[in-house]
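Let's study my pick:
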Amino acid sequence: MNLGRKVAAVAAAGALAIITTSTAVGSPAAARAAGTVTATSGDPITHEENPRVPDGAAWTEAYFPSSDGSGVELHADVLRPADLPANAKTPVILSVGPYFAHVGQTGPEGWDRVGPSARFQDFVDGADLMARGYTFVMVDLRGFGGSTGCLDWVGPGEQADVRAAIQWSASQPWSNGKVGMYGKSYDAVTGLVGNNLKMNALKAVVAQEPVWDMYNYLFSNEVPRPNVTGTPAAYNSIAAMPPMADDSDRYKANALYEASHPECLSDNITNNNNPEADSAYWRARNLARDAAGTSTPLFVTQGFIESNTKPEDMEEYLANHRGPERGWLGQWDHVRGNDTDGDGRLQMGRAGWFDEVMRFYDRYLRGTQPSVADPAYVIEDNLGHWRAQKTWPLITTSYDARLSTGRYLDNGGASAAEAAAATAADDGRWDMERAPRLEVLSRAEKNAAKQGDASASSFWTWSERAPQTLRITGTPRITLHASTSGNVMVRLWDVAPDGTATMFDENVALVERGGRISFDLKSTDWTFKRGHQLGVQIGTIDSNRWRDVPSGHTIKVSGARLALDVQSPRSDVPTQGDRSPYLDSYLAANTTTLGNIGRGTFPLRLSRHG
């Protein structure tokens, strides 16, 4: 559906909903008599009155202005312990995001009556928030749900919304003035924003699988990802969802904001189609850089090998953050700490998510010292082993590996069919909740890797065999000199003595002109067994994970260096945790057998001397 037809359809649906509501619901008293119980009257609604309200909670709605003077009105759903007096003061846990519309998170969910979003009912119920005496607040970002305004992709407008939501939550008569934030994916990003705002009222942030720099979700060093237009289009679709028939008139009017402001949707596509990372637009959305000097206690999770919100600029964010930190980092995909698979296995592999989260909140929102001493960071490596450490990364040594000089043809490598598939993928909906679960090396990519230096599209450098078990951690960084313009891809492979190799890290860049270029790969935590080699592949972008335009140039690469941070496993402190189920899926999708493995030309060891 094109933009004009979509807005018209939303407007028509909204008009019908208003007509239906005016006759079927009318006043709150009529709504109660009809069995459709909402929170629009201002009276708290319990689970017994409306099954969409979590058991033990009382639901109300509220509206307040954003903090930027724009006139944007924000909508909130508030869940309070039903057994507490109206003004009994509690700590507040806040989520701010695009997924809290009454009709559904990313699309209509078939509810038969209005009610608060079930997005984090797993948290409300699993952590016993109401029984513990917490208030849970869900705020719609501008343009979504019951809030007005235009979408702003974590820009100054949305940052103003987060500020307003924290201020409002802290200032209510039922609040003890201490706010924590909770989220996963987009509403984890708003938690990072909250930390960056340096607000006294914000006492703790739990952010699962966030994006650390918004540019990286759509581009990699000026090379567009396949979702560069699909993601903005997906959020346009979420923003344009109609209200429910029994929503209040105020909610309906706000939910239909895009129908009278179609420029909100078109501008969201245009604004996010800018590849210049250093533009003012993207500088305002670089959360990692803006975390400098922040100190809000922070609890994060990150899958090193997930295909959705990747670990890019994570290390920079954590290095810039100066407050207490906790983290679960490992080999999983885009999941929550409590998620399980079809067999009941925890997706992250580690038990106790809600217990640990609530010890974190109790400490910083109530001042209660926990009876259990949780590790600062727990990390699962690619062998499925869990360890605890005081910070991440923990580095034994750092050094630059000198790479070979070589050349490659920037021809795109991948077949025409794969390129067409990448283009088609962008035509679908790709928001942070509905991105591809697994990125798979194609047959063409595996064949090119097997050819080694015999392939025109890439060349290789090999490390010496690891003399002992060691770990590459942190964020590898490549620096090289390119002879002319084009595209470059760098991939890291863990190569066993029998040639079995797993691609575990990669990134790409546009080379605008010949000369020196440097860029980070993804953050990683990958343990090499004794006798394994590191293979570094440099060449054209032969992957449908990006939408590049091959230059056709033969590019000579010289003076290449790979900056590595290496950790010794000798001091690992084991902690509880099972092998995350996703790890085996990733290995199957990204492992092949290489031939023509060359002699090692740089060390893979814990220091330059041993």
About this structure: The chain is about 25% helix and 25% strand. Confidence is low (pLDDT under 50) at residues 1-36. The longest helix spans residues 3-24.
